[in-house]
Design goal:
The protein has 194 residues and is of the alpha+beta class. The protein has helices at residues 2-53, 62-69, 83-87, 127-136, 148-155, 175-180; strands spanning 90-93, 99-105, 111-118, 139-145, 158-164, 185-190.
């Protein structure tokens, strides 16, 4: 009789211990997740603060900008500029982050917003602030592939003024079409630019 009682007690204690351990692990994973979320939110807030304050990398560094831009998982959506070409532009890369854009001088003296990128995987939803900063620094024109960016740029005040239809000769192996479909190139001008 005593033996059965002792075995029962051991089993009950083991079950309590397993239950406590399970709850501990569950709470730890939930807590760790919220810590990461808070860290991501803090990082995003830091990025937004830097954009608003104009905390750009100084001096402008074409190599650093190019390296930041090349981290993109959608490189085919960006025009690939050489370091020499980037030296001719105004570069705005956030200090400490792989986020930025460039302003390229057009023949008529106006500025085109190019190489807009956010290559920080844990910093989301900063694109609108980034483009608004580019506009505030004189950016009037931009182009992009048709798709989800069409509504995005339209809501930011960019009006379509021209379009190039998809041309398969620039996608000989079909890799772009396989990934993005047959997207036209849309040219836009900000509504507040003359």
């Amino acid at each position: 009789m005593k033996f059965k009682t002792i075995v029962k007690k051991i089993i009950n204690e083991r079950n309590k211990y397993q239950s406590l351990m399970f709850n501990h692990i569950l709470q730890e994973s939930l807590f760790r997740g919220s810590l990461n979320e808070n860290a991501d939110n803090n990082k995003r807030e830091d990025v937004l603060d830097k954009i608003r304050k104009g905390d750009w990398e100084k001096p402008q560094n074409p190599e650093s900008f190019k390296n930041s831009m090349e981290l993109s998982t959608r490189k085919e959506m960006l025009t690939q500029y050489s370091v020499g070409e980037l030296k001719q532009m105004e570069l705005y890369k956030l200090d400490g982050y792989n986020i930025g854009f460039a302003l390229k001088k057009r023949d008529d003296g106006s500025k085109e917003i190019v190489a807009v990128h956010n290559n920080e995987p844990d910093v989301k939803s900063v694109g609108a602030d980034l483009v608004k900063a580019a506009v505030s620094l004189g950016g009037c024109y931009l182009d992009h592939f048709d798709g989800h960016l069409s509504d995005f740029y339209s809501k930011l005040g960019f009006v379509e003024y021209d379009r190039d239809l998809f041309d398969p000769q620039y996608d000989e192996d079909g890799s772009f079409r396989a990934k993005y479909g047959e997207s036209d190139v849309i040219y836009r001008k900000h509504k507040n630019c003359k």
